[in-house]
Amino acid sequence: MIREAMLWSPGEGGKVECRLCAHRCIISPGKQGICGVRENRDGGLRTLVYGEVVAAHVDPIEKKPLYHFFPGSKALSVATAGCNFRCGFCQNWQISQAPRRKGGGLTGEPFAPEDIVRAALDQGCRSISYTYTEPTIFFEYAFDTAKLAREAGLANNFVTNGYMTAEALESIRPYLDAANVDLKAFEDETYKKVCGARLEPVLETIRRMRALGVWVEVTTLVVPGLNDGEGELAAMARFQRARLILDLVRTTLEVKTMNPLLLIPGIGMMAIALGTVIYWKAHSKVALSFFLWGAAAWIVGVALKLIAAIPTSAIITGSRELLPRYLSEPVLWL
Ligand code: SF4
17 CA distance to ligand 1 centroid (A)? Predict the structure, then answer.
């Protein structure tokens, strides 16, 4: 189905600029962008694959792969044809590269967003995965489906190469709960030669997703001789480690600065510690007051944190499933 595209600007001479992915194609009338699924028709950008489903399947969420996002649940996976990358090692090249293949075609089985959401509910899925090819290039379809899915109490996740613009990510963010970003390599040269893209926009998407509070897991398909150099893998690991440290600091600061009342459990713990020292040194009855007031402050403070600081996604999805993970975070207890 052909639909008006989102995120584009008119240019000179009937050309249009697509603002969906980091290629930012300038497309002449009658031509298509690099992905082959967005076309300039009469000076307007159209998506050619809206609702044209080429693959749909119920998968375990771990197969996406997402290991810490509703573990043990099922996800309804959907895809249309096309991709903004052309990786030589793609496992789904028959559908991802269909627009570039002779006779590849863009059409699939027509499914409205409502059909996908209904099927996910009927199959007992907890989420919908936009996957197999690149969800960025079927953005309009993913966007409409994700919005309906959210209303129906389902979560949404992208399995993506991360080559979307900041604008695209911010548009889908209200409905996007998680993403698995495929980090193909850690050298720009490999991205250029093998994928027809660049590394930095992918890293930027990973940083941006974390900053926006999307649950992110990163996958690298190790291809011997292509991206398995010791230095490259170490650089990749360092990038992830830096993200982890920053995330931990950010989460801690967010919770601490959200409301001074959230410091109460820490103060309670300090009072208990002080009471212990006083009792140990002086056997004074004053220690009992420190214990009692400290314990009361700690209980009240933890309760306040639970009310004020549960991650938004747990509330949005109306789910208790994220709660155990949150309860295990040390920042809650201090
Ligand atoms: S989605 Fe990316 S590759 Fe496709 S037309 Fe837009 S900018 Fe070009």
Answer: 9
pLDDT tens-place string over residues 117-173: 999 999 999 999 999 999 999 999 999 999 999 999 999 999 999 999 999 999 999
Domain extents for the chain? 3-47, 50-228, 229-334
CATH class, range 50-228? alpha beta
Residues 164, 35: Cα–Cα separation, whole Å:
12
User: Which residue puts its alpha carbon closest to atom 5 of ligand 1?
Assistant: 33
Residue 192 pLDDT: 96
Q: Which two tokens stand for residue 323?
A: 């709660």
Phi-psi category of 124—alpha, beta or left, where left has phi over 0 and alpha has psi -120 to 50?
left
Cα(34) to ligand 1 centroid in Å equals 6
The CB of 33 under 6 Å from ligand 1? The reply is yes
pTM comes to 0.75
Q: Is 319 exposed, middle or buried (0-12, 13-18, 19+ CB in 10 A)?
A: middle
